[in-house]
Design brief:
By secondary structure, this protein is α/β, with parallel strands linked by helices. The chain contains 15 helices and 13 strands. The chain has a 7-stranded parallel β-sheet with strand order 9-8-7-10-11-12-13, sandwiched between helices.
Length: 444
């Protein structure tokens, strides 16, 4: 599927109409391709916080060119400002002092990252100053334009060295459709990260389970995890066996067909992973369904089926894998929530409840997991798939334009975010829910 309006605006007549009529003017987003550098250009770093001195070294280890002082005429692909040293509201002026002079010096599709300290761990004026960073980054994300993204990364004290995988993701084209997000490192569980030998294949030697893997977002998750080195085990319903088998054969992976809501599904999945692979490193709960109706017209079967597939099955499967020690140390559990679970949606009380339940699932386990195992979720916004292609034109256009990037995302955008969670270097990234929505105007 493609965004026809985006394609139109890239034409001569499209640009003329956009300019004269004030229409949305989306920028074709840069996305990562195998062999590309993480960042095509220089990143300007600044600030006087806990990571300021180490940032050039962290980015240098990722082969990212950095500059520590503005130069006349220089252009930048990214900006990283360490605001963790701001301890009072009147010090917030440092944000304006750093950003205002360089915002017009950014390349197309730039990346901006602000680093802070989790406010909930602070008191008094320092807590106020650090909480203020959220309003700043969310607003800048809606101003930056040109396909740019802006993120806030709260790094807990002691977790400074665990920020590498997150900076690699947020500064690269892999985060093309992620903007206006607040990410916490070291807030739950471990504050360290496992070394990554090869940043181009961080999942080499790992086994990844993906449910709902035969098409759409699930297919792209499988492909990206395979690209990053994982052996993928795809799971889908028996009716999807043919495309599932073709995909897994293409990826040199493995497959299992079953209904994840079946009583014995968790045990069958656990047994398959243990017997054929000796365990699993990454579990992605992607399978999901919709059965939309306004609540006044909602039948019991519509409600129960959505809750069963979208949230009950992931909870049961995860519980079984943990109980049998099938998830290896430093393993990853990732749930696929939705913007509907945050902002709600007409006709989707069942779906929104299930996806908010996925967020609750993350909250319930983030502080209980051991051995470096983490749990996080993605919350996609309007992602262009065969399913959304069937949405009425007017509704579809609103869904695609009502975000800071004025366009829909692609399944690969969700997959790249999951791959960041899955990285061995993301052990300190735990308990997060990151929206993949182009900074949608709805919801938090």
């Amino acid at each position: 599927m493609s965004d026809k309006y985006l394609s139109f605006t890239q034409s001569t007549i499209g640009q003329l109409l956009v300019k004269n009529l004030g229409l949305p003017n989306p920028v074709a987003l840069e996305r990562y391709a195998v062999g590309d550098p993480l960042v095509k250009g220089a990143v300007l770093v600044g600030g006087r916080g806990r990571l300021a001195e180490s940032l050039p070294g962290i980015l240098g280890a990722l082969d990212i060119e950095t500059a520590e002082a503005r130069a006349d005429g220089a252009r930048y692909k990214g900006l990283v400002f360490d605001a963790s040293g701001l301890t009072a509201p009147d010090q917030l002026e440092a944000l304006r002092d750093f950003f205002t002079p360089v915002l017009r010096s950014l390349e197309s599709c730039p990346r901006v990252v602000v680093i802070g300290t989790p406010p909930e761990r602070l008191d008094g004026e320092e807590r106020i100053a650090q909480r203020a960073l959220e309003g700043f980054t969310r607003s800048l994300g809606k101003e930056i334009g040109r396909g740019g993204t802006v993120q806030l990364v709260y790094v807990a004290e002691g977790a400074e060295e665990a920020a590498t995988s997150t900076l690699a993701f947020l500064l690269s084209p892999k985060s093309a459709y992620v903007s206006g997000q607040v990410i916490r490192i070291g807030a739950h569980g471990s504050s360290t990260a496992e070394p990554v030998a090869d940043w181009t294949r961080p999942l080499a030697g790992k086994v990844a389970l993906v449910t709902g893997a035969s098409r759409g977002i699930g297919e792209q998750i499988a492909r990206v995890l395979h690209r990053d080195g994982a052996t993928v085990v795809g799971v889908d319903v028996p009716q999807a066996a043919d495309p599932l088998v073709r995909l897994m054969e293409d990826l040199a992976g493995d497959w299992l067909t079953l209904d994840i809501t079946a009583v014995d599904a968790p045990q069958r999945i656990a047994r398959h992973l243990q017997e054929k692979h000796g365990g699993v490193d990454v579990v992605v709960h992607n399978a999901g369904i919709t059965r939309d109706k306004k609540l006044a017209n909602m039948t019991a079967d519509r409600w129960e089926s959505v809750i069963a597939v979208n949230v009950v099955a992931p909870e049961r499967i995860t519980a079984e894998l943990l109980a049998q020690n099938v998830i290896n140390p430093n393993g990853r559990v990732v749930g696929v929530a939705s913007i509907a679970g945050i902002a709600g949606n007409v006709g989707q009380t069942n779906y929104a409840a299930s996806k908010a339940g996925v967020i609750g699932f993350v909250d319930s386990l983030a502080d209980k997991l051991t051995d470096g195992i983490t749990i996080n979720a993605v919350a996609p916004g309007f992602i262009i798939t065969q399913m959304t292609a069937a949405v009425p034109l007017a509704t579809r256009e609103v869904g695609q334009r009502l975000n800071a990037m004025a366009q829909g995302g692609l399944p690969v955008d969700v997959a790249e975010t999951i791959a960041w969670y899955a990285s061995p270097g993301s052990t300190a990234v735990n308990g997060n829910v990151v929206r993949v929505c182009g900074q949608m105007m709805l919801g938090a």
